[in-house]
Every structure is written in C-alpha cells, then in structure tokens.
Amino acid sequence: MSNETSRWAAAIRNSSKPAYVALADALAADIQSGQLAALQRLPTLRSLAGALDLNFSTVARGYAEAQRRGLIDSRAGSGSFVRETLSSGPVRRSPPAGIIDMTMNMPPEPRDPALLQRLRDGFASLAADGDPWSMLRYQEFGGMPEDREAGARWLSRHVPGVDGSRVLVCPGAQGALLALFALLARPGDSIACEAVTYPGIKGLAAQLGIRLAGLPADDAGIDPEAFGALCAADLPKALYLNPTLNNPTTAVMSPERREAVAEIARRYNVPIIEDDPYACLPQQRSVALAALAPELTFHVTGFSKCLGAGMRIGYVSLPSARYAARLSAIMRTTTVMAPPPLVRLATRWIDDGTVRAMTLAIREESRARQRIAVQVLRRADYFTKPEAFHLWLAVPAPWTRIEFATHLRAHGVGVVVSDTFTVSGAAPEAVRVCLGGPADRDGCRHTLEIIEDAIEQAPAVMSRVM
C-alpha cells in the first residue's frame, strides 16, 4: 500500500462520514497540504478499491464527489488527475471550521498595540500618496531602482556588500525560486537539496520536469561528503539549501558545513540557491553562503516569515549584475511583477524600521511559544530551536505518522506528515507542528496539550472506530 492510500485508509477509518465522502475529504486534505501535486495521476478506481478494501461503486462515488468539488478531473481512457488549476504546494488559507491550523508555517502574530498601529499607519500611508495611478501601472520588471536599493539594505544584514544592482524584487520568495529553477535547469536535469526539505520546491520541480537529488542531513545541515560524491558521479545543475531553521527540521547549518559545501560548490562550479527566509529570526547570526561563495550564490529571502504570509514581497541577491536581465525576463513570463502597492509598502517599512520591529516581536513571541512547548510536551521527542515557530515531532511507536496526524485532525488539530517534505529515502515517522497557527499563547498551549495527550496514549486506546 502506498503512502497516499495508507493516509486515505486511515482517514476513512477515523471518519464518521460515509466512506465516499471521507475519501473525497482525504483527497482534499492531501491537495491542500501539497502531498498531491497539480496534474498528478490518481490510482484507478479498481486498484484503489482493492487497496482500501472498499467496493468499486464507493470509490467511484468518492472520485465523483471530489470532481464535484473541483478537486480532480477524470477523462475516459486517461484516468483521474488532480486539477491543473490547483496549487502544487501548500498555500496559506483559513482553516476548516473547528480545526486549529498548525499545518501552515506562518509566524505568530504579535499583539503589541504600538506595533499594530505602525502597521495600520503603513497601510493608511498608501491611501495618502498623491498619485494612486502610480501603483496601478506596470512597473520596471525586477523592481524600481529605489525598491531594489531598499531590498539591498535589508539583505545587507545577512549578505555583506550587496547593492541594488544585484538585487531583484520578486512577488514573494516562491516566485524567485520558480524563476531560479527555470534559469539554472532544464527538464530532465537535477538539482541537489536536503533529503527532507521545504515542500514548495517539490512542486516547482514537478512542474518544470526537474529531478531533485536528496542529500542526507542532520542538525548541522547536509553532509558535505555526500554532496561531493554526488558532484563527482552525477553533477547537479544547482544546489538548493534552506540552511537556517530548516523547514521542516529546524536544523541550522553549522559554520564548518557551510564552508565545506561552499568549497565543494566552487570546485565543481555548482550554483547555490540559498533560500533563507528565517535567517532574520535567530539572535546569533550564521554566515550566509552568499558571503562564502558570492560568485555562485543566489540568496533568496522575503517577508512571509518576518511580517506575514500575505506580504508577498521577496528579494533575490544575484552573484553578479549580469544575471539581472535573464532572471527578470523569466519572472516577467512567469509572474509579471510584484504588486506595486506592496512593494511601496515594503520599501517604506524597511526604511522606517517597521520590518525590523516586527522581526524582533515575532522572535520574542516565538520564544514564548517554544517555552510553552517545553512545559507541555514533556514526553515528546522533537527538534526545534528557541527562535523557530515550528517544531519537528518524532511520532512514537506504535503510532504511525499517518494515524497520528489523522487522529489529531479528528480532534481538531492539523499537522503535516513527513511525506510532504521527503525527497528521497523512506519518509521518517515525524510530523511538523507550526506554533504560529493558534491565535494566542493560550490557544498554543491548548493545542499542544492535545498533542501531548495523543503521545501518552496508544492508537488502540485513542481510536474512534469500534
């Protein structure tokens, strides 16, 4: 039985709804979490009926219900597929009624009145600008010079010496990653990455026909020797890394590993995509790979982790200005441009210190929620860092990750299973828990108590199925 059918079987067993509705719900959950990508082929009705131990007509009704909801398409002679218009990776959304959403890795929202007023003032300032048409026109692709310079000022905290000529403004970090994958690789090429990594790149690679080569990693980052061996045997077109507070494992790449990986990349001339949206959160900064191998590294960051996911503004620092025109052309084709009102707001908030103030507030709120996790999750085995707003929870036997996540969802808590993040090898028995999902600390504590209760009990005791 595949990972997908195992999840669906567990979801159906633990649901009080008719089996065909529970199947459609399971498909919806996998599509929303990114575990099913756009255009992914689904099992045939007959094979799925056998795997789930359901009759053919029940599975057919489940697929029909999923098609009615706009989740899948079925074509005679071709089978059933996830709809092309759906996102291939997780997107921020309002949680289903009754569900405390700890699936999306969004920052906690500080409630400091002075800080909230700064945000309101920033939005109000857009309305007060003299020429609204200036925010409704096409802008220079890659950003206006003043906005690129503002991005360089923000990036300079982590990438010393960067200037506006080497910075492009993007519609979020994901837009930058899409453009970089398209720039550096072609269909059939490979890009190396952590074996357990940010799921957004899995969707990008699938859409572009790029192979991902997963590298073993631990709490200090990827294994440099494994990277070197891969380069010698099957040279990748690029190396993608999420080196600081890795999503999902929270690993922070050590200085020694960063230096070793930079040296290997230089030896084999492998470009590095440094996806570092969490770099602003730790008080103790790590040296960016862009500082160690500036001639090879594309450093990507954005505001979704230090302001909020709705602030879809990102920046990419280029190895040299000569890449600007090529990358701008790709972004013009794929995403056109970043929204001008948000770009203007981002520049204003960089210059007046609002981004910095928000980052510090999110850091402190994350620390507070991590302290709650230490108090509540006394029996849990998990990995995290003091300033991270997520944790990587090992699922204890006899639970499986699928049963554990399904059980939590039945009790109103959404988490993400490791399959979503796994590029190569067997998916570990683990789930990612986002501490930023609950609205406040009391909600965070309550949700973690539900998780701790599940850890203390065996699946047979907790099962709702008689």
Automatic annotation (TrEMBL):
<dbReference type="GO" id="GO:0030170">
    <property type="term" value="F:pyridoxal phosphate binding"/>
</dbReference>
<dbReference type="InterPro" id="IPR051446">
    <property type="entry name" value="HTH_trans_reg/aminotransferase"/>
</dbReference>
<keyword id="KW-0663">Pyridoxal phosphate</keyword>
<keyword id="KW-0238">DNA-binding</keyword>
<dbReference type="GO" id="GO:0003677">
    <property type="term" value="F:DNA binding"/>
</dbReference>
<feature type="domain" description="HTH gntR-type">
    <location>
        <begin position="17"/>
        <end position="85"/>
    </location>
</feature>
<keyword id="KW-0805">Transcription regulation</keyword>
<dbReference type="InterPro" id="IPR000524">
    <property type="entry name" value="Tscrpt_reg_HTH_GntR"/>
</dbReference>
<dbReference type="InterPro" id="IPR036388">
    <property type="entry name" value="WH-like_DNA-bd_sf"/>
</dbReference>
<dbReference type="Pfam" id="PF00155">
    <property type="entry name" value="Aminotran_1_2"/>
</dbReference>
<protein>
    <submittedName>
        <fullName>GntR family transcriptional regulator</fullName>
    </submittedName>
</protein>
<dbReference type="Pfam" id="PF00392">
    <property type="entry name" value="GntR"/>
</dbReference>
<comment type="similarity">
    <text>In the C-terminal section; belongs to the class-I pyridoxal-phosphate-dependent aminotransferase family.</text>
</comment>
<keyword id="KW-0804">Transcription</keyword>
<dbReference type="InterPro" id="IPR015422">
    <property type="entry name" value="PyrdxlP-dep_Trfase_small"/>
</dbReference>
<dbReference type="InterPro" id="IPR036390">
    <property type="entry name" value="WH_DNA-bd_sf"/>
</dbReference>
<dbReference type="InterPro" id="IPR015424">
    <property type="entry name" value="PyrdxlP-dep_Trfase"/>
</dbReference>
<dbReference type="InterPro" id="IPR004839">
    <property type="entry name" value="Aminotransferase_I/II_large"/>
</dbReference>
<feature type="region of interest" description="Disordered">
    <location>
        <begin position="83"/>
        <end position="105"/>
    </location>
</feature>
<dbReference type="InterPro" id="IPR015421">
    <property type="entry name" value="PyrdxlP-dep_Trfase_major"/>
</dbReference>
<dbReference type="GO" id="GO:0003700">
    <property type="term" value="F:DNA-binding transcription factor activity"/>
</dbReference>
